[in-house]
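Run Transport permease protein through structure prediction, thanks.
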Amino acid sequence: MSTENTGPGTYAPAPGAAPLPRMIAAQAALETRLLLRHGEQLLLTIVIPTLLLVLFSAVDIVDLAGEEGGGGGRVDFLAPGVLALAVLSTAFTGQAISTGFERRYGVLKRLAASPLPRWALMAAKTCAVLVTEVLQVVLLTSVALALGWSPHGSPLAVALLLVAGTAAFSGLGLLMAGTLRAEATLAAANLVFVLLLVGGGVVVPLEKFPEPVRAVLELLPISALSEGLREVLRDGAGMPWANLAVLGVWAVAGLAAAARFFRWE
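Sure, done. The structure for Transport permease protein is below.
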């Protein structure tokens, strides 16, 4: 039996890596599916922010006297903060925990040996975070509008704040995941989430804190993001450059530290 080719290229496989954009897209799709299938992550990224928005909008748990906006009342204050919390939950807490356990179980080590470069793996994880955040924003915005929210301001300013916040929290999350043990990352990420929920201007106005404490809290990335979104969406202000600058500093510092100290094994 002849084994000669019956036509040009019939038996001419070309083994090798797929184009880099295709590899990043495939890895990003996989990361997104894994995230959306994870019940605990969905609780953190979807359920908790939604419940907080509905509960604090409907029940007078926190005194927001003087903080409510126009027609939507309490929800005008709460919606921007909950959007900031959604970014925190996905880009920082969720990413830190999942990446930390992938590092512990050797998943990152094996992926680092694949044709996909390490920086491209991090890019794919970032794309998965952004896709999840888009779903969060759509859901939370729909819920807030149903509760009477009346947003204002520039969509471009909102988008820039969300992207800057994502970069800042991603850098900090990867730094934590790449330097601490998985169990320590789990505990620390959840603790930080709770502390920033209370002290980051999400559901409790920063004006409720003593002045020296407030001065420190205003420098946190969650405070910069929540207050910046509030200035745009509630007050109709232009680009909040001061808040954007705070997020930019955190993003540069966090991503640089993660790139320097991240350990793959």
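The mean pLDDT is 85.
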